[in-house]
């Protein structure tokens, strides 16, 4: 039977990734995002795509036992000429990988509904999500944990560290490193996600 998880979401869709904007109504007393939203409004979910949730869960369990429970979810898509029920299998990442945000891995059973071309045109010309920058107390130690993700490759960048995941990356930095990268930005308290990076057709258009 269907069960509402207590949140509303909208999505900024790219060819193989998306940004999810979620809100939990005040009357909802139980939701996995409430603890994160109590900290501040911001970037609180990191979802990694997988083609096999069972295999990915077993892979991570070797580094961080026990094995995570697989869950099924669905959401209705009604935008950009696309109509249908998108279906997913997902699992929560181990707590060792969920310190900066709620982490999960997702298998899309209906990618034609989620990554529909009619949903990919954006006024600022953004075409893809390239990665994110997380603020942690020990970038090297955090990167070692994220390196356990399937297909991950670790790269040192001075006092920062990066975890390459195909065409995207997670940059781990400390508060001082984030301030050097974005001197005018307000940095959330660590551990947290401080920023994300998009690529655009034309950088001048992206400023609009």
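-> sequence recovered:
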């Amino acid at each position: 039977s269907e069960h509402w998880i207590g949140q509303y979401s909208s999505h900024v869709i790219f060819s193989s990734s998306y940004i999810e904007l979620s809100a939990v109504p005040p009357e909802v007393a139980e939701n996995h995002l409430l603890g994160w939203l109590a900290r501040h409004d911001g970037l609180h979910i990191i979802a990694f795509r997988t083609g096999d949730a069972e295999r990915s869960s077993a892979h991570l369990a070797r580094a961080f036992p026990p094995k995570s429970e697989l869950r099924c979810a669905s959401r209705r898509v009604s935008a950009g000429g696309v109509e249908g029920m998108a279906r997913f299998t997902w699992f929560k990442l181990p707590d060792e990988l969920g310190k900066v945000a709620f982490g999960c891995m997702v298998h899309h059973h209906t990618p034609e509904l989620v990554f529909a071309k009619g949903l990919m045109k954006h006024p600022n010309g953004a075409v893809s999500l390239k990665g994110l920058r997380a603020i942690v107390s020990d970038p090297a130690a955090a990167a070692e944990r994220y390196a356990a993700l399937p297909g991950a490759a670790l790269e040192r960048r001075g006092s920062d560290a990066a975890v390459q995941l195909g065409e995207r990356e997670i940059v781990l930095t400390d508060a001082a490193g984030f301030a050097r990268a974005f001197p005018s930005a307000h940095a959330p308290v660590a551990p947290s996600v401080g920023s994300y990076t998009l690529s655009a057709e034309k950088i001048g258009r992206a400023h609009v």
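DSSP finds six helices and eleven strands in the chain.
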